[in-house]
Amino acid sequence: MEIFGIPTQALFGQLLIGLINGSFYALLSLGLAVIFGLLNIINFTHGAQYMLGAFCAYLLLNKLGVNYWWALLITPIAVGASGIVIERLMLRQLYKLDHLYGLLLTFGLALIIEGLFRNEFGSSGQPYPIPSQLSGGRNLGFMFLPNYRAWVIVASAIVCLGTWYIIERTKLGAYLRAGTENPQLVQAFGINVPRMITLTYGFGVGLAALAGVMAAPIYQVSPQMGSSMIIVVFAVVVIGGMGSILGSILTGFGLGLIEGLTKVFYPEASSTVIFVIMVIILMIKPAGLFGTQK
């Protein structure tokens, strides 16, 4: 069976790949949006922290025998804690300065982290096995769906929607948003705003690390895996609207699907289609699809 002259298995297979990529775009751009929207920092270290998540899972398995499921719990906490150290020692000094200073600092940190891991592990990727509980797949008739890839899509959607709900629909989220707009007022209610900001940054970094653990069995664990992803993720954040939580989620999944379709109908443009869309969106709506002009 064919759709628009394309075999259905090839079409749905590329859509699945696009949805998987979109899952990682959504998770990573969500972490960036949380950090920028609540802390006003453009976190270029995000790609390196995604890579740290994958390497942390890899080292836990190969050095300590800790399996994938425990790595999903331990890694975001460990990498998030390293993010808290970065925020307290470095980023805290930059909150009242121009965005450029935070971008330059985090860009330099990303290069240092990637260089250290490349020096230690080399440039070649390291394999990470799919957990036995999620091996195999299901034949849906029109395509074969690997169980692990289905898990990644569902888990990413749950984490993204859960984060959006906490920030936009709970009292904690209201305090976080108010703390960035009027910290003096929030502190008057007895809330420790600097600590709240530190934990928020750690949470955003933890989201990147979680994405790294989930990506490890699909992509090889490599020092360059973050740098190859972060440019696309920044484009996703810009298209969705800087600081927009819902915009990052919807745009991440949507652009992943568009990228998958482009690989079917016009493969030559698949690596640039997201950036073409970014240019068009910025010309029409500079704040992004879901952003607001400040």
Summarize the structure.
The chain is mainly alpha-helical and 294 residues long. It has helices spanning 8-39, 46-64, 68-89, 99-121, 147-169, 171-181, 183-188, 193-215, 225-240, 245-265, 273-284, and strands at residues 2-3, 6-7, 137-139, 144-146.
Radius of gyration: 19 Å
Supply the number of helical segments: 11
Indicate the low-confidence ranges by residue numbers: none
The tally of structural domains comes to: 1
Which strand order does the major sheet show?
A: 1-2
Helix content: over 70%
Q: Oligomeric state of the chains?
A: single chain
Cα shape: globular
Main sheet record? 2 strands, antiparallel
Task: Describe the structure in your own words.
The structure is a single chain. With 294 residues, the chain is mainly alpha-helical. It has one domain (2-229). Helices cover 71% and strands 3% of the residues. It has eleven helices and four strands. It has helices at 8-39, 46-64, 68-89, 99-121, 147-169, 171-181, 183-188, 193-215, 225-240, 245-265, 273-284, and strands at residues 2-3, 6-7, 137-139, 144-146. The strands form two sheets. Strands 1-2 form a two-stranded antiparallel sheet. It has a two-stranded antiparallel ribbon with strand order 3-4. β1 (2-3) and β2 (6-7) form a beta hairpin. α1 (8-39) packs parallel to α5 and α1 (8-39) runs antiparallel to α8. The longest helix has 32 residues, at 8-39. The protein is globular and about 65 Å long. The termini are far apart. The mean pLDDT is 89.
